[in-house]
Structures
1.
Amino acid sequence: MSPSSPEPREVVKLDLSAGFVHTMLINELPHVVVRPAVEELGLSYPAQYRKLQSRSWASVAQTATVADDGKVREMDVVPVRTFLMLLATINENKVSPEVRPILVAFQNETADAIEAYWTRGQMPARETETHDLAPTTVSWEQAAAIARLRHQLDVTTPELRELLMKGGILTLTGRPHKRWEHMFWPLATRWEIHESVIPQLIAFAGQIRRELARAERELQMSLPMPLTVLADNVRQIGGTR
């Protein structure tokens, strides 16, 4: 366990393709404020904190930060390496489908985002900057084609939309849920998908399809045998005597 840092630190929120990570610099090394990230995944922070305390690879420190209300509060922070190791221990099946893209973003993008800001001095994108210029987007038809050709997920455009609806990314009208609007770009008559999040959305859709198929198999196995099938089996057994 690392010692506490005595001076209040600046917290910088870095946006990822899904969710965001709170970071600060301690002894010239980037650290992650761990509690907001854990809670964003819908997990128990006390349980994850106990896990960190019991792991030899974990380094946890407490540092003072100035909150929005001007008060100084203590926060638990970890080095980037510890944060990524913690993420690797989280079973994706223990987080809800709607937050799995956040877990994927944490795993795939945290190190790059922190290096870009704290090492190369690249400012995180602000919401106003994001909307000044139209980003590179992909239509639903293109997304389905990418899923088939590059990710071996055999889906049509309607099937891809349906999987994302069942996974909680889209509403029943096909509009993104407010929590996930940052992954899409609104046009006059439709929403298109940010190119950078295509792999995550396709992976999520594939996971939803596998879960639905598994649930259907389990349901079929739990159903009683229809009486007509049972009668046919009895007649076949009787005929072999």
Note: The beta strands are 5-9, 12-15, 20-26, 29-33, 61-66, 72-79, 137-138, 184-186, 191-194.
2.
Amino acid sequence: MPNEDKTASRITKKRRKELARELILSHDVGQRFSQPDSAHFSELCGYEFEWVQRASPKLGSAPAVHVSWPAGDYTGSWSWVRSIDGYDDRQNLLSAMRVASRSGTFQSVAINICVHCGSTDRLTVDHQSIPFSRIVELFINEHGKPEIVNVDFGWQLVDPKQFLDYHDRLADYQVLCISCNAKKGVRTQQAFEATQRR
């Protein structure tokens, strides 16, 4: 790689996105990056990933990746373009609240098989009845926006306990493979809205 690749903080966002795209496209769909390539991709995005894997893109979208981000206790699809451009205040808040939610009942979910297709590969834990974004919305309506702080590779709640307690009272989970998880988002929101109308 050229020397400029190793100094991501000193090059433009446009060039960082070009380099990230080239790096993704140098791998086959489903292929996990080597450790040096994962480290380089991490530097370009400004997050420290344990691993990075090229994924199938959505129609008409940028090349896609799945990542493991230990600091955020997150494994799944990653918007690398958005992470380079920077998130807005709402995305920063959502990110901080998601990080907080991972330290509660989420940790006790047994991750062994996708409940939809039976796959045991690339499993994720997902909110089943109420989408995470809806739990956040309900919490903010009742308690206001919590204070967040930027630490190392992302945002965290200054005092996560109140949101974590609220989240854990409402959250139930299901285990899905990455493919089934991508397909179910709209269905979950529609099902929840239907129960609210009854």
Note: The radius of gyration is 18 Å.
